[in-house]
Amino acid sequence: MTWSKALKDTVRTGLTVERTKLQPLVAVRGAAGVAIVIGVVLWLATPTLAVSSAFGAFASALVTFQRSWRPRPVLALAVAAGLAVSTFVGYMAAADPLVFGVLLAVWTLLAGMAWAVGPVSGMVATQTVAVMLITVTLPTSVAGALLHAGIIVCAGVVQAALIVVFPVRPWGLQRDALADALAAEADYARRLRHDPVARFDAQPLMDARSAAELTPRQARNRPRQLGGPRGVAERLRPVLASLADPVVGAPAEGPERDHVRDLLAAAGTVLDAVARSIRWGKPVRLPPEAMAVLEGAESGSMLTGPARRSALRLIALLADAVEATDEPVKEARPANGEPKGAKAPKKSGEKEQYRHLLRPTVPRLVPVGLRALRREARWSSAIGRHAVRVAGVSLAGYALGSALPLGHGYWAPMTSVMVMRPDFGQTYSRGVARFVGTLVGVFVGGLVMALAHPGPWVCAALAVVCIALMYLLMRTGYSVASACIAAYVVFLLGIAGEGWSQTVEERVILTLLGGLLAMAAYALFPAWETPKLRDRLADWLAANGRYSLAVLDAFAHPADRKPRRVREALLDARAARQAWEDAVARAQREPVRHRGISRNAERGAEAALATMGRVTMLMEAHIPDRDAAPSKEAEEFAAALRAALPDAAAAVRERRDLDWSGPLDAYGAWQARVGEEGVAVRAAELLVDALDELAGVLSRGPGGRNRAARR
């Protein structure tokens, strides 16, 4: 992609306003917290303290809108504590520009590295830098600095208290994540009716797993509906794929295929009903038509062999999903309108206690964060380079802002820090959105100030209105949020008695300067994803290989099979695939030429590795019981694959041709001994086909599709 096209795409992305679901009650609650803090401080203290407290209340509420699975009060308190520390430390160094510059560079470097812990941690750390730059310009003493920090903490406490006293849809994020996973399974089942090898996006399952990680306190209060269905959803996917696949499941045409289509449609209906029940906390309502199909398949089915086993397993898992909601099952009215009686699943005397994934508490998160920082503290890391880049830009912006004959010079480095992200696309699109939004916001705010000349209390009310609009509309686009924030700042400075005309002019000029610095820094010191695509592809191949080996070992030695090993290998393969897809999405927006892998080869390799993962999943659905006979052929095939994988991953990185002769020979010997009977040998055929396709698309020879590697 050329620079001109990349810039056009980032401008279009930055100025896009999306239609999205709004959260008015949460927005009103956050704005109420800001109003309480500003009103009380303005009444009891000075306008300067009111402005300082407003930033603390604003940031403490802002973090509760982020996609985090931690309790919202904890997030608000953590942000307030971080803002208080950054404010006090900044005040201590503000008297000496040189000392403050060093502090700013070090603090910003650490804030940039915080992205290694996660996006929410990175956003919170960025907020601490922004508030440090703003509040240290307000005149005060050491005692006043402590007072400012204390008021910011109190602002966070107010927001946390409002969240506790006025909860809005408790466990809503967790319910939505689990419901989205089940709805994705339902959609997958319906697509399999027409495309037996349809692709499945595992992101909803990954989100549901993240949402299921709980602290001990959360686990004690979790609704029962959120306990069991996630595990069922994980086990459903391979069963659905195995039932629909024409190689290991029902034939591609005929009565058995029609019966499978009916089963898949009924499964989609049941999963949708369970998803609605979990999302809204209501009983499951199952259409009688779907129940009739499932009951008929259980009592007597025309399916045979692996297809019948998959069908029975599917019915059992659907029953588990319905029962795990712990609500009475209501049978909906049939299509002809005849009423049906209610039906409830049988329950034991006590509720089943589902285990949960452990999420570390905030104190225990410290060593986890330190390990993440140490892992990313290297020159080749995108996050490490981002930290160095944002530290240098913030220092340069602070120096330029101080040197220019304008007030509020901190707006330049603050803009740079707020728009910069570890990847090119987000940095440039946010820079454009920030400038355009600021231009609109300061124009509207300045116009109101010029026409109405409001006093401090009216300015405070207008600031609260602006922040309420920002909370409400922030998910529609960064340009909209920037416009609301810009007007919010104009009215806050109006509380402190700042002249609106000077504020508007300075804000526009310094915001433009900060955005240009951020964009120039990424162009001069980039962290491109395009050159790393082969490494991501090799990581995905290695992870897929470990997953295949874990499943093949279960066929080779059923008595020694380790379900946990298979599960961990599957999670690693999912994570590697997600890392590849994220890298490809970022690389497509970069103005960098392909290095070693063309777009055609990229798409072909992705399809081959996706097929490899799907075939392994089909085998996983038919792992034999522990009392089954060992398979010497599966053991030999696994040994050949295990020997070939390290060199294959290295060949992908080093742009060499892949050699799968060992697995191909082992499969040939396996097929010669047992023929085409058995799920494992048929899946092994699909597996070697996928490996051969991968070698073909990455080949540098005349028949290969990787022309970029031949240049």
From TrEMBL:
Tell me which residues make up the Integral membrane bound transporter domain: 398-520
Q: How does it sit in the membrane?
A: Multi-pass membrane protein
- Primary site of residence: membrane
Q: Is Transferase tagged as a keyword?
A: no
Task: Name the keywords, alphabetized.
Answer: Membrane, Transmembrane, Transmembrane helix
Do you know which InterPro entries this protein is assigned to? Memb_transporter_dom
| Residue numbers spanned by region Disordered | 211-230, 326-353
- GO CC terms for this protein? membrane
Where is this gene product found?
Answer: Membrane
Name of the featured protein: Putative membrane protein YccC
The species this protein belongs to is Streptomyces netropsis
